[in-house]
Write a structure and sequence with these properties.
By secondary structure, the chain is α+β, with helices and mostly antiparallel strands. Helix content is about 15%, strand content about 30%. The protein has helices spanning about 1-5, 20-30, 50-75, and strands spanning about 100-105, 110-115, 120-130, 140, 145, 150-155, 170-175, 185-195, 205-215, 230, 235-245.
């Protein structure tokens, strides 16, 4: 009998019937068990109201509810062991959840907002420049050509106007590892970055930007410190990928 076989083959639904695949799907998902003695489907018979709601109820219980449970388990980060025949394509259901990955990208002119779950992440920083940093000089009135010597990820908390680097200071490209003339793409990391609302950690929410710096010019523009000077004239695009780490 079709019910026992569970493959949706009925005497009145031949292989060339337009609805054969749909009938087979309905039987495999326990939505219909056929009619008469279970070896017929009665494809041309009218469905009454009671049968209609029965089909809908079986579809909810046997198709929708398992999917909803699966999604909730994935979102909570823990998947319960389920029937090995459950899931897509009757394949064994995985009992582990893939690590979450967060990606953002921009240019030197972009500041990106973020809101991330607390935890430890593996971070990779990528940069693609229009030309080599050493070749992208910024002319100044005193020193002449000033090449880019540092590119780094910076962040600030929502409650602060100060940009910080110490939580992500391993994700930077310093002089000597900046893009060369023949290689305009560079990658920094992977490096561990902890996200937590604790001083010295990357906060769970705030803004991120990527900055390029030239050597300090104490006269032009005038400044009272010896810090490197940030420039937005060096054209590049960047990307930051955070992948959740599991213990």
């Amino acid at each position: 009998m079709a019910l026992a076989q569970g493959i949706g083959t009925f005497r009145d639904v031949p292989d060339n019937h337009y609805a054969r695949d749909s009938v087979e799907w309905a039987v495999q998902n326990n939505i219909t068990y056929g009619c008469r003695d279970g070896t017929y489907f009665c494809p041309e018979r009218t469905v009454n109201r009671a049968e209609s709601v029965t089909f809908l109820h079986r579809y909810q219980n046997n198709v929708i509810r398992p999917l909803e449970n699966r999604v909730r388990a994935l979102e909570s980060g823990s998947v319960q062991t389920q029937d090995p025949n459950a899931g897509f394509g009757n394949q064994p259901t995985p009992t582990t959840v893939p690590p979450r990955t967060f990606t953002t990208r921009g240019t030197q002119h972009h500041t990106r907002s973020f809101s991330l779950p607390a935890g430890l992440y593996e971070a990779v920083f990528t940069l693609e420049a229009t030309k080599a940093a050493a070749d992208h000089d910024q002319e100044t009135a005193v020193s002449g050509a000033e090449p880019v010597i540092l590119i780094q990820v910076e962040y600030r908390e929502n409650s602060s106007s100060a940009w910080k680097t110490h939580a992500v200071n391993t994700l930077k490209l310093e002089s000597g590892t900046l893009p060369a003339a023949g290689a305009l793409f560079r990658e920094a990391g992977p490096a561990d970055v902890e996200i937590a609302n604790v001083p010295g950690r990357l906060p769970t929410s705030g803004q991120i930007r990527v900055s390029a710096y030239m050597a300090d010019d104490e006269i032009t523009p005038p400044d009272a410190d010896s810090d490197n000077d940030r420039t937005t004239r060096y054209d590049f695009s960047w990307g930051l990928i955070l992948t959740e780490k599991r213990s």
